[in-house]
Amino acid sequence: MTRWYEDIDVGSEFPLGEHTFTTGEIKRFAKSYDPQYFHLDGALAAQSQFGGLVASGWHTASMGHRKMVDTIMAEADQIRATGGVPGEAGPSPGIDKMDFLAPVRPDDTISYRLLVRAKRPSKSLPGWGVMTYFMDGTNQDGVTVYTQEFVAFNRIRRPNLTLGQRVGMFIAALPIVGPMIRTRRLR
Amino acid sequence: MTRWYEDIDVGSEFPLGEHTFTTGEIKRFAKSYDPQYFHLDGALAAQSQFGGLVASGWHTASMGHRKMVDTIMAEADQIRATGGVPGEAGPSPGIDKMDFLAPVRPDDTISYRLLVRAKRPSKSLPGWGVMTYFMDGTNQDGVTVYTQEFVAFNRIRRPNLTLGQRVGMFIAALPIVGPMIRTRRLR
Question: What ipTM was reported for this prediction?
Answer without folding.
Answer: 0.85
